[in-house]
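Per your request, structure below.
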């Protein structure tokens, strides 16, 4: 009996101890002053939408990551609706649909999101579930907000169960107003963004009684922006195309975390903010930012988003098959030929840039052209094959001297490429492996030209091969400033320091959009006959057809499906054995 009583006492003591311990843990949890929320954010997606072998994450994996992170807010910081053909052919509608499927709460527009015009951006805001926030974008005449609301308020449950009121708003760098075509922003203006940010933050805190205030800004100078704001707990940024996880002091000296998640959907940002329920402020010492890469999300997907992507792709197939023009002949593309000489397809592309921008000169790098124009009907898909990268058309100013320097370098680079090409052709003729001779790593930087006529002599030393140059039919003036149209890759190409770092005067839409507009004019075939480069040493450098006929034993060309084969079958069979080498070589 005594043993039984002792056993009962032991059990009761154990249960009381367990209850007491559980009560203490619960009490400690209830008394905890830390309430943490998580914000998943993206920026500068530029129309990328699905997983690729080039490091893109895509919306399907994003949705799975959001669920995995148990995100309280999902935000995007602009340059979202414009870039890849998937986005541009529906003027951002396809991307907006996927943002709905993922569950975005809000976004702020980037400078490229205005490329379809302000009315289209407003329509995307009104017809979709997420809010587009840009408090410093106002109607010029009325000085009223352009978008329906400058901010979003969302009540979220923090990880400890605390309900928090979070205010989110967006502003855009006012310097971006002039970086898009003026017609895209006609009737509206961008006011100074830091002052507007402080004003909205004060409203969210004092009038709306928000616990946490978050600013989104598409911004070229995050440090400068933060130094002029007050009352903001965190800044989620876009535009700089880098990973940012820094802290800057605001106007009152308070440290404000600033984060940005790279570009082209290569990363997802996860920002954790901890709110102290006793002091009623965000504890900046416990703020954390995590970046998820494509490698981190490779196994993630969401079936609902996958289905939405498939439906949009099927819908867009109809658009891609639409006929936009007719050609009387085939304009060939060759990966090799466009790196050693001027090609007709290069003339067409640069003429399109001149036609849209009214610039004096146009450049296009050889690596930016990936297809040709077929004989007969030209479809949207054909144009995407020519210009598949979603590059943007920009205009810069250069002196005549700078332009000639770029032309000289391009000619020198094409001569280097041609030396390799000649060795490859000789190797093929001898039954050897042509790819024992490697192209320069920067072969894609050879330029195609428009608006300029250059005579050059290959027997002269590098840097002094140009004998005569004209722009618009007049001798080039070395000290005169000319407007140059090119893609946004060339302006960052280290091969051409003359243009790197120079300011962008104007940004237009994508390069394929310019090409489509030009094809529709019917002027492209005449433009194909306008030679820009003339080798006065007598070599055939300005005729695609003559070059190909004089070299019947050319090695294989990476022609687009629209152009067909441009080399003999025997050589094709030989090259099949070298495909492994070919795949490595042609990444450039």
């Amino acid at each position: 009996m005594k043993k039984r009583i002792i056993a009962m006492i032991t059990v009761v003591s154990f249960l009381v101890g367990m209850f007491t311990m559980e009560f203490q843990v619960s009490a400690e949890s209830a008394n905890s002053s830390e309430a943490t929320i998580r914000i998943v954010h993206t920026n500068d997606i530029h129309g990328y939408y699905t997983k690729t072998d080039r490091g893109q994450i895509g919306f399907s994996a994003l949705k799975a990551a959001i669920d995995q992170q148990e995100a309280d807010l999902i935000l995007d910081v602009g340059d979202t609706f414009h870039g890849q053909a998937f986005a541009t052919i529906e003027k951002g509608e396809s991307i907006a649909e996927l943002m709905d499927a993922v569950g975005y709460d809000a976004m702020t527009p980037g400078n490229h999101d205005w490329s379809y015009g302000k009315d289209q951006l407003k329509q995307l805001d009104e017809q979709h579930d997420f809010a587009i926030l840009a408090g410093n974008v106002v109607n010029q005449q009325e000085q009223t907000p352009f978008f329906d609301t400058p901010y979003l308020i969302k009540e979220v449950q923090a990880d400890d169960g605390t309900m928090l009121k979070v205010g989110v708003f967006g502003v855009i760098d006012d310097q971006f107003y002039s970086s898009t075509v003026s017609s895209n922003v006609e009737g509206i203006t961008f006011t100074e963004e830091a002052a507007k940010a402080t004003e909205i933050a004060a409203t969210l805190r004092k009038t709306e009684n928000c616990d946490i205030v978050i600013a989104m800004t598409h911004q070229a100078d995050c440090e400068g922006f933060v130094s002029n704001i007050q009352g903001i707990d965190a800044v989620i940024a876009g535009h700089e195309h880098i990973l940012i996880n820094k802290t800057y002091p605001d106007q009152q000296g308070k440290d404000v975390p600033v984060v940005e998640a790279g570009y082209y959907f290569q990363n997802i940002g996860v920002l954790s903010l901890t709110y102290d329920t006793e002091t009623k402020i965000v504890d900046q010492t416990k703020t954390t930012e995590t970046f998820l890469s494509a490698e981190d999300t490779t196994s993630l997907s969401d079936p609902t988003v996958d289905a939405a992507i498939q439906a949009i792709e099927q819908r867009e197939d109809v658009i891609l098959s639409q006929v936009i023009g007719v050609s009387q002949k085939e304009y060939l593309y060759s990966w090799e030929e466009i790196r050693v000489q001027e090609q007709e397809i290069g003339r067409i592309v640069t003429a399109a840039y001149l036609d849209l921008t009214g610039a004096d000169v146009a450049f296009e790098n050889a690596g930016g052209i990936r297809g040709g124009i077929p004989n007969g009907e030209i479809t949207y898909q054909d144009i995407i094959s020519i210009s598949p990268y979603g590059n943007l058309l920009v205009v810069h100013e250069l002196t005549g001297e700078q332009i000639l320097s770029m032309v000289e370098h391009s000619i020198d680079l094409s001569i280097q490429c041609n030396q390799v090409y000649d060795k490859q052709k000789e190797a093929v003729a001898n039954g050897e492996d042509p790819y024992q001779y490697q192209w320069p790593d920067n072969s894609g930087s050879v330029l195609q030209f428009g608006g300029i006529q250059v005579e050059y002599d290959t027997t002269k030393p590098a840097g002094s091969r140009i004998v005569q140059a004209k722009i618009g039919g007049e001798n080039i003036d070395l000290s005169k400033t000319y407007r140059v149209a090119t893609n946004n890759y060339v302006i960052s190409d280290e091969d051409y320091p003359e243009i790197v770092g120079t300011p962008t005067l104007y940004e237009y839409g994508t390069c394929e959009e310019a090409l489509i507009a030009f094809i529709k004019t019917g002027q492209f075939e005449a433009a194909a006959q306008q030679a820009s480069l003339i080798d006065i040493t007598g070599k055939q450098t300005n005729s695609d057809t003559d070059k190909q006929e004089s070299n019947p034993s050319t090695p294989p060309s990476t022609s687009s499906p629209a152009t067909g084969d441009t080399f003999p079958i025997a050589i094709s069979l030989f090259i099949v054995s070298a495909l492994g080498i070919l795949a490595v070589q042609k990444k450039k």
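The longest strand covers residues 163-172.

Regards,
D.
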